[in-house]
Design brief:
7-stranded mixed sheet; Glutaredoxin
Length: about 160
């Protein structure tokens, strides 16, 4: 069942691209912009995450941590992060458990791939409550970052 505004965000612990554990519950007291993206090294994902990189100070000024999740391995994410100079955590949901908890998995993606995360955005407030959701069926589209910034500004 799709998560709704007002739901508690499902907690998780995933490995980042440096093989460290990152837990959502460690961000209590801060807003979190949780982004799911289909695959590292693909066009729209690169555009999205580089935009985050270039605008990270905007999110920081809104007392917001940016976390990005894909089903890629930590090794692929480490290379992607290095090549793109990304300055926020990339988390590996290789086992697809968190993507399933957030109900953002494609049944079938391109080239017959199954269980790839849909491009999605969740704003989670300081208490761990979902305040914004956007799950895109078309992987070529980007979340509405202006609406996301407006929501974050209203939380501070």
């Amino acid at each position: 069942m799709a998560l709704q505004i007002g739901d508690s965000a499902p907690l998780f612990t995933l490995k980042d691209s440096d093989k460290n554990d990152v837990s959502l519950e460690n961000f209590k007291g801060e807003n979190v912009l949780l982004l799911f993206y289909p695959l590292a090294f693909t066009g729209t994902c690169t555009t999205e995450l580089c935009d985050m990189r270039d605008n990270l100070t905007t999110y920081q000024s809104l007392n917001t941590k940016v976390l990005a999740i894909s089903i890629d391995t930590v090794f692929a994410q480490a290379k992607f992060k290095e090549e793109q100079g990304l300055n926020f955590p990339l988390l590996s949901d290789f086992n697809k458990e968190v993507s399933a908890d957030y109900d953002v998995l494609y049944e079938e993606f391109v080239l017959g791939m199954k269980g790839v995360a849909k491009r999605s955005a969740f704003v989670i407030d300081k208490e761990g409550v979902i305040q914004y959701t956007e799950i895109l069926e078309n992987a070529g589209e980007l979340p509405d970052f202006e609406k996301i910034k407006e929501k974050l500004a209203g939380l501070n």
